[in-house]
Automatic annotation (TrEMBL):
Residues 18-348 form the Enoyl reductase (ER) domain. It is an enzyme of class 1 (oxidoreductase). The keyword RNA-binding does not apply. Its EC number is 1.1.1.264. It comes from the Bacteria. This is L-idonate 5-dehydrogenase. The keyword Transferase does not apply. It comes from Streptomyces griseoviridis.
Length: 353
């Protein structure tokens, strides 16, 4: 569905125009079309892909061909219903499933239901297609009604904005069905790594160990449930013979040590995005230790599980280290991109006060 725009109202949006060029632009306020709702967005979380578009004008192979509204981690309230929409009401607090498969949705039997592996997906705040798919770092956004997810009672929109990255973590944890009671290592304690810690604890893992080069990131990981941490910047080594390892740093140089930390016959889940270009990496232990190395990409419907986890008391607030108003979006991006800033999840206050 394509929303129309109103000539009688405007809104502000965080728009990247090219590498190093992000602006708060004024745009027409959308009007929801058939099957759509208009959201008044309140909070948005900055992700690595937002930083990539801002810094490099591209995220992976998706390059900017024209300006793009950033943001896919958002929450707000229903502001208006388009024709034919039922089951939702104005004022309802919601988040958004940001993915929409392009095409008939059919998948081979071997990956039936795994819509995250569909060959073409429009994702909020992505330049993978032209025209691009605008994201949600704006005061208003028209959204297909079936992408809207109401927040459970007691879950505010600030925490609701983190349902999307928590869904990524829950999908990764779900790649290892028999996790309960097992020892887990999470290498890389950035926002996704710390959420993997929380997701592993939520799914019943035994001892959870987090490792990182940043002491501030490890402090967040501890507050998210890690019972033990390893500060690699101080020469502390990864543990040995760990049943299940989640590699969340995306650093090829870390792979040798991470594989060595994985127990013989153990499982390594790759959560951190690895480069799409040739890089050196030490992989010998993959073979000699018979390690199962599993990829994990985005999520299917785990955003619903994430909302239940938030309802059940999984506390994502320790991850939030900075909050900025929408008009200071460039400063917020700078803080999120600066390792020296010690940031976890940086949020934008999009509207609502």
């Amino acid at each position: 569905m394509t929303a129309t725009t109103s000539q009688h109202g405007t809104m502000r949006a965080v728009v990247v125009h090219g590498a190093g060029d992000v602006r708060v632009d004024t745009r027409p306020r959308p009007v929801p079309g058939p099957g759509q709702v208009l959201l008044a967005l309140e909070w948005g979380g900055i992700c690595g892909s937002d930083l990539a578009y801002w810094r490099k004008g591209a995220s992976g192979t998706a390059a900017l061909a024209h300006p793009l509204v950033l943001g896919h981690e958002v929450a707000g309230r229903v502001a208006a219903l388009g024709p034919g929409v039922t089951g939702l009401c104005e004022g309802l607090p919601v988040t958004v499933h940001p993915a929409r498969p392009v095409g008939d949705g059919a998948l081979p039997d071997r990956i039936a239901g795994r819509t995250n592996l569909y060959p073409q997906v429009r994702y909020f705040g992505s330049a993978a297609f032209t025209p691009h798919t605008d994201g949600g770092f704006s005061e208003y956004r028209a959204v297909d009604a079936d992408q809207v997810r109401p927040l459970p009672d007691g879950v505010d929109t600030e925490r609701g904005a983190l349902a999307e990255p928590l869904a990524v973590a829950l999908h990764a944890v779900g790649r290892v069905p028999a996790l309960r009671g097992r020892t887990v290592l999470v290498n890389g304690a950035g926002p996704i790594g710390s959420l993997v810690v929380a997701a592993a604890r939520y799914r019943g893992a035994g001892r959870v160990i987090a490792a990182d080069l940043s002491s501030s990131a490890l402090a967040v990981a501890r507050s998210m449930g890690a019972q033990e941490t390893r500060d690699l910047s101080r020469g502390e080594a990864l543990p040995e013979d760990v049943d299940v390892v989640f590699e969340a740093s995306g650093a090829p140089a870390a792979l040798g040590a991470v594989l060595r930390a994985t127990a013989r016959g153990g499982t390594l889940v790759q959560v951190g995005n690895l480069p799409g270009t040739p890089v050196p990496a030490v992989l010998g232990d993959l073979v000699t230790r018979e390690i199962s190395w599993i990829g994990s990409y985005r999520f299917v419907e785990e955003i619903d599980d994430a909302l239940l986890a938030l309802r059940d008391g999984v506390d994502v607030r320790p991850l939030i280290t900075h909050r900025f108003p929408l008009e200071r979006a460039e400063e917020a991006l700078s803080v999120a991109a600066d390792p020296a800033a010690g940031s976890g999840k940086v949020l934008l206050r999009l509207s609502g006060g």
